[in-house]
Specification:
The complex is a heterodimer.
Chain A lengths: L2 E7 L8 E7 L8 H14 L21 E3 L2 E2 L21 E6 L7 E3 L2 E2 L2 H8 L22 H11 L6 H5 L6 H12 L8 H14 L10 H5 L7 H16 L1
Parallel strand pairs in A: 1-5
Antiparallel strand pairs in A: 1-2, 3-4, 3-5, 6-7
Chain B lengths: L14 H8 L5 H4 L3 E5 L3 H13 L2 E5 L17 E2 L11 H11 L6 H20 L25 E2 L5 H18 L3 E4 L2 E9 L2 E9 L5 E5 L2 E4 L20 H8 L4 E2 L4 E7 L22 E5 L2 H8 L13 E2 L1 H5 L9 H13 L11 E4 L1 H15 L6 H27 L8 E10 L2 E2 L12 E3 L17 H21 L13 H20 L5 H15 L6 H21 L11 H25 L27 E6 L8 E6 L14
Parallel strand pairs in B: 1-2, 1-9, 2-5, 9-17
Antiparallel strand pairs in B: 3-4, 6-7, 7-8, 10-16, 10-18, 11-15, 12-13, 12-14, 14-15, 18-19
The chains are: A alpha+beta, B alpha+beta.
Chain lengths: ~250, ~675
């Protein structure tokens, strides 16, 4: 396949940035999207040009590091995949592909396609944990029976990889899907009940302080989420938040 | 320096308890005066950082990723072992200890492995308390599955994402401490050197990967939880950024490197598809609970399959060779990884590989789908003889167990594994070798500790499935936080360590010179091109089977490649910006040294043990042949070039377990 790539290039946080065109040939349909960019970068390097910076690490869809906005969609045209799992067989010979970073006020650009998602970490610092010491002196694991249904639902929420596709896809740059996934995981488990009130209030407060937008229930986040995190979680967080506000 | 493993005296089962009672503690008020650096935030580093902070130490944690949650422990799929005996199938601490030592082919340290088995049960309690959503049965209790090399069900799991859930557990414990200010987190930072002051590890030089700035960080002790070095093979299941740099720089400063040649080549990975390949993807060992591995019995069918004239599903049962079930009836498809990998290679070398490159075997779920489907139909009172219904029900069960793995496979290979068998081939996955540590997890540099995959001690020459997560968390939550206190108890009056010393200056200057060399070199070839070439040498000559001639060639070739690398590598950009190529250049430089030591270690070890298979040492049936003369740990001391590395031996003594031929037949 021969492709035209239009890629966002931005030297650093202060640079204005612009789209730049590249031609790439002999792309195999079995390549992953990032392997295609590897080929481009190798060509750029050996020509003495500066390679395109992008985040990536595990390349198997679980670390959440890769974060490309491809043809107007977070992680590109395929569903339930991260950018590293997107394969070139999703494209046709002669296609033009637009590649941009995840854009949001709370995710400032570091370079080219690399953004700073530390806002997500700070939301977790505010309450994304159960305050139990790691000494191992806890009760036997089986003394807390948890219904399979609740455990499975908690697991579904806990599957979030923190990539930020939800924020990038949302017209309001809202982080509700991400935050609600964590709140839900603990809300569904008996271990999480003790701190439930503070947790949801603190995490939502931090989310707002970071400059993420509000949720208007368009559902774009759910569509683009590589892990299929459900909007149900947002509804659950809203309930948790409401009841916490009355208690608080 | 003579190696002292510092194994406590007394009966095996009492050693750890007694040791904990004997060592010195630091009182809570004094802990506030002590700083500890933890490098790496995977299961080992993350859990250690959280626990040390909770105890009251001031922790500085470092990771090269943009968040501690992204460390590659996140990608571990199948599960974590613990001797809980919830299934009542005869499990015990001793049995987990026994399986692990045997699985490691009698090349691990008895006392360490026993301690690991002992604390394993605590890990599960701890993680459940933290809110890790392990799989449960309908009664609400924890579920288990089986892994290779054992005869009990002791593996706890969270779908096919156990590593993710455990890491997020450790990450949440870290977050609590970061929020309290007890951990200062440095994301996108890479350790470039460890600083030794008066013979003790007192800090590190780190590079801020966003700004390129070099930073000095001091502490009373330094802990490395920096993972393994599988990426020396270029293609592996490791993350792209996984590297040996922190461990190797520590080695250069005096930490001995143990058993570098012990590599785990995992039997069930997605085969290589072409030259563009950047990494390999694992399909969890848990799939071998239900998947059956086979190749065609006859060459003519192999040809027909390769040319697309025959579909694997069309091949009659009698024309298939379920070679693991044939060769190892007792363990069948659940033999340990080293055995399963070699058996796949044997079939493929003999010409029975089922894809175009001849390097793939089938992993087939058809039988499991029917079995589960019938079971489900029976439970629901439906017609067990309705094939379509049974298949449909069976697929649902398989999907619930392995859905995410099947989806991953389909996205990469573009084939539906519910309908046609998966194709798999072995790939580099884990390294059992690593920095030498004593019973306290301290390296040969006082005050420098190594935990998790970065150290060498618990898995011998082959790691059993679901044991890496166990070891990482055991080291970080339950072992290091105790043992490091003994060392730090002598530092309560030391006060803050200054970074304004000649030692820090020298280390920083050294790191800067390295960086400047790469930036100013202006060669003609990219960093990756060298990495790929190194990987080829490693895979062809230091891979699944090794021999004297090729190992000697490998040593020469790597040494030549390293010289060429320094002369001709092209690193674009500058040192004071976000520059991934520059970071990579430093990592590949270290791989080019480690690779040579790896080959040297493999050459020395004239035996076959676990993942290390020397063609000269095998039984007539092609099984690995261990030799008593090699019942030792090879610990290498840095002396300049890898070829000059000096060997130290730690003899391995087995007092509680009989060293037998390892048989899974």
């Amino acid at each position: 396949m021969n492709l035209t790539l239009k890629i966002w290039r931005q030297k650093n946080a202060n640079d204005k940035g612009k789209m730049v065109d590249y031609q790439i040939s002999d792309v195999s349909p079995d390549m992953s999207f990032l392997e295609m960019l590897d080929v481009l970068n190798n060509q750029l390097i050996e020509k003495g040009d500066s390679p395109v910076a992008f985040d990536h690490d595990c390349r198997e869809g679980i670390c959440g590091m890769c974060s490309l906005y491809i043809n107007g969609e977070a992680h590109g045209p395929d569903r339930r995949v991260t950018t590293c799992q997107l394969h070139m067989r999703m494209f046709k010979d002669g296609d033009t592909i637009h590649i941009e970073p995840f854009r949001a006020k709370a995710f400032p650009i570091i370079k080219d396609l690399v953004v700073d998602r530390s806002a997500f970490d700070r939301v977790q610092h505010a309450g994304g944990f159960i305050s139990v010491n790691t000494s191992g002196n806890t009760q036997d694991a089986n003394s807390i029976p948890i219904s399979k249904h609740a455990a499975d639902k908690a697991m579904d929420a806990a599957t979030c990889i923190g990539c930020g596709a939800c924020v990038a896809s949302c017209k309001n740059s809202s982080a509700m899907l991400f935050v609600s996934a964590k709140v839900s995981q603990y809300a569904l488990l008996p271990q999480g009940q003790v701190e439930a009130t503070d947790r949801v209030l603190n995490m939502v407060q931090q989310m707002d302080d970071e400059g993420f937008g509000n949720c208007t229930n368009t559902g774009a986040c759910e569509v683009e989420c590589p892990k299929g995190i459900s909007l149900e979680n947002i509804a659950r967080m809203n309930r948790e938040y409401l009841s916490a506000s009355f208690k608080g | 320096m003579a190696l002292d493993s510092k194994i406590p005296q007394g009966p095996l089962a009492d050693k750890w308890t007694k040791h904990k009672n004997d060592i010195n503690l630091v009182n809570p008020a004094n802990k506030r005066l002590i700083d500890v650096i933890v490098v790496g935030t995977g299961l080992a580093g993350g859990s250690a950082a959280a626990t040390l902070a909770e105890l009251g130490y001031n922790v500085k944690a470092f990771c090269f990723q943009d968040s501690p949650r992204r460390a590659h422990s996140i990608a571990a799929q199948g599960g974590i072992n613990a001797a809980k005996n919830y299934q009542g199938d005869g499990d015990s601490t001793y049995r987990l200890f026994y399986d692990t030592v045997k699985g490691g082919d009698y090349r691990s340290r008895e006392a360490n492995v026993y301690r690991l088995a002992e604390v394993s049960a605590n890990i599960i309690d701890q993680c459940v308390a933290q809110g890790v959503p392990f799989a449960r049965d309908y009664g609400g209790l924890l579920d288990n599955r089986s892994f290779g090399g054992v005869l009990v069900s002791r593996t706890f799991y969270a779908k096919g994402q156990t590593g993710q859930q455990l890491l997020l557990g450790a990450y949440s414990a870290m977050n609590r401490q970061i929020g309290r200010g007890k951990i200062k987190m440095y994301n996108r930072h890479e350790m470039l050197d460890v600083v030794i002051v008066d013979g003790k590890a007192r800090g590190i030089i780190a590079r801020n990967l966003v700004t390129g700035e070099l930073e000095r960080h001091s502490a009373h002790a330094v802990v490395l939880g920096t993972g393994g070095y599988g990426n020396v093979f270029f293609l592996s299941t490791n993350a792209m950024g996984s590297n040996v740099t922190a461990a190797w720089r520590a080695h250069k400063r005096g930490a001995y490197f143990a058993n570098p040649c012990y590599t785990q080549i995992h039997p069930t990975c997605i085969p290589v598809s072409g030259d563009h390949q950047s990494k390999l993807t694992l399909m969890s060992e848990s799939l071998r609970n239900d998947g059956r591995i086979w190749v065609p019995k006859h060459k003519k069918d192999v040809e027909a399959i390769r040319s697309g004239k025959l579909k694997p599903t069309q091949l009659a049962e009698d024309d298939r060779d379920y070679y693991l079930e044939r060769r190892y009836p007792a363990f069948g498809n659940l033999v340990p990884r080293d055995v399963a990998s070699r058996a796949a290679k044997e079939r493929c070398d003999a010409g029975y590989g089922v894809n175009a490159t001849g390097e793939a075997v089938y992993l087939d779920f058809a039988a499991a789908i029917i079995r589960y489907g019938k079971e489900k139909a029976h439970v629901k009172g439906l017609n067990e003889n309705d094939d379509a219904l049974v298949k449909e029900l069976g697929k649902e069960v398989v999907k619930a167990k392995y859905g995410n793995l099947f989806q991953m496979y389909e996205k990469i290979v573009d084939e539906n594994p519910y309908e046609t068998p998966m194709m798999i081939f072995p790939a580099v996955h884990y390294t059992m070798g690593g920095i030498w540590v004593d019973y306290n997890l301290q390296t040969t540099i006082p005050g420098l500790y190594a935990i998790g995959e970065a150290n060498f001690s618990d898995h011998g020459s082959n790691r059993l499935g679901a044991s890496a997560l166990m070891q990482g968390l055991a080291d970080g939550y339950f072992v290091l936080p105790y043992t490091i206190g003994d060392y730090l108890s002598k530092d309560i009056r030391t006060g803050a360590i200054s970074t304004d010393s000649t030692e820090f200056e020298e280390a920083e200057k050294n790191a800067l010179e390295n960086i400047n060399h790469f930036i100013n070199n202006k060669g003609t070839k990219s960093v990756d091109s060298f990495h790929r070439r190194l990987g080829k040498i490693m895979w062809n000559k230091c891979g699944m089977s090794r021999n004297e001639k090729e190992l000697k060639e490998a040593i020469e070739e790597i040494s030549t490649l390293r010289k060429e690398f320094y002369k001709d590598v092209l690193v674009p950009g500058t040192a004071d910006e976000f520059n991934e190529q520059l970071a990579k250049a430093g990592r590949v430089a270290d791989f080019l040294e480690l690779g040579e030591l790896f080959a040297k270690d493999a050459l020395l070890r004239e035996e076959s043990a676990g993942g290390h298979f020397r063609e000269e040492h095998q039984t007539p049936e092609g099984e690995a042949k261990r030799r008593t003369e090699f019942q030792f740990v090879s610990a290498w001391e840095y002396k300049g070039e890898p070829k000059d590395a000096l060997l130290h031996k730690e003899p391995l003594v087995y007092e509680n377990i009989e060293v037998k031929e390892r048989s899974y037949k």
